[in-house]
Write a structure and sequence with these properties.
The chain is mainly alpha-helical. It has helices at 26-80, 86-117; strands at residues 5-7, 10-12. The protein has a two-stranded antiparallel sheet.
Amino acid sequence: MDDSKVVGGKVKKPGKRGRKPAKIDLKAKLERSRQSARECRARKKLRYQYLEELVSSRERAICALREELEMYKQWCMAMDQGKIPSEIKALLTGEEQSKSQQNLNRHTKAGKTDANSNSW
């Protein structure tokens, strides 16, 4: 009697299942494994360097924002006492100057475009 079974219309024979292992030189296989491990370590090192740089830049940004926040707190405390900090005065006068400069630029640009449109 035959030991083969019929499953789903196919005849299956008992024994090992799956692909048979290819006859690979063990030294070559070991060397490929070592090379793969070296590449993995190199990728890991690069990834950690990138992450460390990212953390460092974020920490610098946090410090800068904390300093800016502290400056604004000082300004608010001064304004609560009725004093206007010189930095705010400089900002306000700078805005007024930039607005007047923008208005002046708009008028000169409008004059130039009118002159250019008629010069053909």
